[in-house]
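Can't paste images in this forum, so I'm doing it all in text. The chain is below; anyone willing to post the predicted structure tokens underneath?
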Amino acid sequence: MLTRRTLIQTGAILGATLAMPHIARAASKTVRLGHASNEIHPGHKLAMSFKEALDEILPGAFDVTIFPNRQLGDDKQNLESAVAGTLEMAMVSGVLIPLVTGRPAYDAWQLPFLVRDYDHFEKLALSPIGQKMQDDLEPAGIIGLATADIGQRNFLSINSKVRTVADMKGLKTRIVPVPLHKAIWEALGTAPVGLPYGEVYGALETGVIDAVEINVSSMLGENLWEVGKNFTLTGHYPWHASNVVSTGFWNTLSDEEKEAMREAGRRSVSATLAYAKEQDLSGRDELREKGVEIIELENLAEMQETVAPLTAEWAKKDPLIAEFVEAARANS
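Text version of the structure:
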């Protein structure tokens, strides 16, 4: 015979049983996401937007901790750790992906003057070719979840003011030491110098380099305005960055968890691009207030014409690059 006490106990057991899926979610998967940017940089926004979207899509499934400011190493070290499977996730500069993984397609994002602006970038990033670029990384040990422009690149010089392409000639200019960047800046007549990102401030301060191709976000975040006062607007290519996840960690996930991570990646792209676009424009006013002269390049068309042959040259290096070039030109 069922007594009132028995019914209460049965109800409690049933309630606990119905709550079990929630309890199971409490055993969330630990995710460390390392990157080299500071907290005001759009790269950090890309990492944070991903975490926030993932929490909304699948609450409690993941415990994502973000390590900014090179806490787990510089850009290259974070990427290498993700490839090796010793770090679950990284937000990394896309320019390093071909260098570390041997997959050349990501160079396409920085073919000079191909991607026009933040809106154009968004169309490509969320298009089939953008997804193909990310899928191409899997054989190298990482899965691409999001790619965003974290700041169009311009030109900072410490002594001479660059008003024309001719003014760039001979300037010792910091680049990431990759073939595409070397080819671009040699074509423009600079003397490229490969340096890690964290050494740029000191190299400008001591005159080891005369200039750096850089974006507004890094000017502000790394305090480069303290050592460089001549900022020439060229917008020569985006600085693309990606959230990537180690395939070792990826393969431990359920289909539901994988789709949640992919969707979080997609959502993080638009949020990051909106932030980067706003910061790029408002940041110029902030730089002016800090004594930086914002200069318009007088012969931008000449700069574009000088580096244009590199797009055709790089398109021959990989079918995905050629496909990306075609998509970028069609998506105008």
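Confidence is low (pLDDT under 50) at residues 1-26. The longest helix spans residues 255-289.
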